[in-house]
User: What shape does this take?
Amino acid sequence: MKLTVEDLVNIGRGAAFLGTGGGGDPYIGRMLATSAIQEFGMPEIIEPDQLDDDATVLTIAMLGAPTVLTEKAACGDDVDLAIKRMEEKLGRKADALIPIEIGGVNSMLPIMAAARLGIPLVDADGMGRAFPEIQMVTFNVYGVSCTPLAVTDDHLNALVIETGSAKRAEDLVRVSSIELGCSVIMSSYPMNGKQVKDYAVHGTMTLALEIGRAINRGRKEGDPVEALVDYLQTTPYYNQCKVIFDGKVTDLRRETTKGFSIGHCHLTALDGSGRTMEVAFQNEHLVARENGELRAIVPDLICMVDRETAEPIPVEALKYGQRIKVMGVSAAPIMRTPQSLEVFGPKAFGLGEEFVPIEDL
Amino acid sequence: MKLTVEDLVNIGRGAAFLGTGGGGDPYIGRMLATSAIQEFGMPEIIEPDQLDDDATVLTIAMLGAPTVLTEKAACGDDVDLAIKRMEEKLGRKADALIPIEIGGVNSMLPIMAAARLGIPLVDADGMGRAFPEIQMVTFNVYGVSCTPLAVTDDHLNALVIETGSAKRAEDLVRVSSIELGCSVIMSSYPMNGKQVKDYAVHGTMTLALEIGRAINRGRKEGDPVEALVDYLQTTPYYNQCKVIFDGKVTDLRRETTKGFSIGHCHLTALDGSGRTMEVAFQNEHLVARENGELRAIVPDLICMVDRETAEPIPVEALKYGQRIKVMGVSAAPIMRTPQSLEVFGPKAFGLGEEFVPIEDL
Assistant: This one.
């Protein structure tokens, strides 16, 4: 598949939607990708099935607090350095890159990286959404080691980390990322082609593109949120979806702490009923409760969009008084297995509730 | 030079003295070295001048809070792994090891490492004492990069770090060490033989050995503290030395925080004069004030010894009621230059006083 620069706008918008509040600002992501494409050309996007079983595939991502990513973006050399350090450590060249997650920055940064390095990008990722911590990906759930991994920053500081556990790697990368200013580049989960085919969430780059296009279409035809819901219902993963709240932001608490954007957003219904919704987040939205009652919970997607334009609103752009539609969307089946729920279900975030699929709520 | 196992007791004791309260418990250090020597044989100790100018020399040390090192020692494989990761990164084998500092653990751990790896250990170090932070060594003062550096732990987690500044490396290693339990192995400051000859504090292993022997002699002959002072006056670096206080511990505050042992110790004079001394420490003793007046300050050495046996007392072994002689000892001349004072003089520790040599106090 060959993308156009126009596609980037739609991918960025769709990915920001799937980023469920996290994954970084799509504007920043698009700027990074566009400038790399202008200099190095558009990279090839390939399906997982096009990979040789023994191909070397690396993830590439920005990691940190989205509030900081906005001000401290990648410089390019940091991306090259992260891949180079991984290749040195592995003793072989990367044949392709893959996003670790889908989000405004983290679906675009891999495009930037693939363009710079002249290698293809795989149309897939490790969650079909965004999550805040390194161990929270299908690759880890199904036994791929996240290390060796490389962390770099725009001063070309570099760390190569090897651990026996993804959680240990997360802890080390997190404290290092804080020390380096809460925004770093990370390449991790070195995989072969077979592992990507078996454990990745396939086609998510294309899905992000089509989500962006559906929102666009809706804006021309009438109701973009309706167009978005209609399209999602035709997808393989996100077909269980509904608008769970229509309200305005009446309270917002957001702290950049422990290397994350952590907080909650309260909304009050626009229909005058006095109903309220609380959405809690750690970079990404974790749980939505209406008057204390569960409405959607991780790993299902909780997405906030502008109620008129369906523009996805990242956590760092939330503002008092914003009018928002909150959507609950089913996660990919591979994300809802008991093994997956152990790694990124409600308990992994310290939530008291059990996971209940959005279609049962 | 070939050491005997008996020498280890004396080196450990002498190094604990030069460790100025830090550098780890000599008992732990000696156990580590002895068991490695039993398995692998005693390593050769060489003078810096025996190194080829282009020889590859690496430091090896334990890093963390001394209070924790006592309970979480090295396993051996962690030492091997740190050197291996450095060799991989540098693309060449280590020809020799060198202690980064002199201290109860950090003069012994290099013996253990050299024994395990079958390579010589250089009779020198980067400060002729102990200091709490990575940048606080002559190697850094005179322009040797502390990275690439490798950090490992007993679970064989490993990090290889590259930075443009030793302080940045310190910050990254410190947070990583805290994450790994406040006790890790670090190999850093890859040097060539010429750099070791030019910038190391020479002969400090031998000096530690002779200090230990002098204390021993004093115990047989009468006054070990006197014997210690007499010997120090004959050395090239430590010849300005005096007992600056003779008292008992009347207050002690010691916290394991930010990856260090931080606190202060108050002593009251035994002569009934009511005079008091405060000694502040960050792993190592930093400043001694008598009734508020400066008596000794970094980088000069402030050493606490048992007033009867001259046994050096590390910070983690300080106890209420202990009877202690506090000594002030001159640091090596290379440690007192303006460039050195910028890196580990009083200001580097947030102290208000200027450095005043012990002989002028």
Chain A touches chain B through 18 residues (CB under 8 Å). Residues 240-350 of chain A form a domain with the CV3147-like fold (CATH 2.40.390.10). DSSP finds eleven helices and 17 strands in chain A. Chain A has a mean pLDDT of 95.
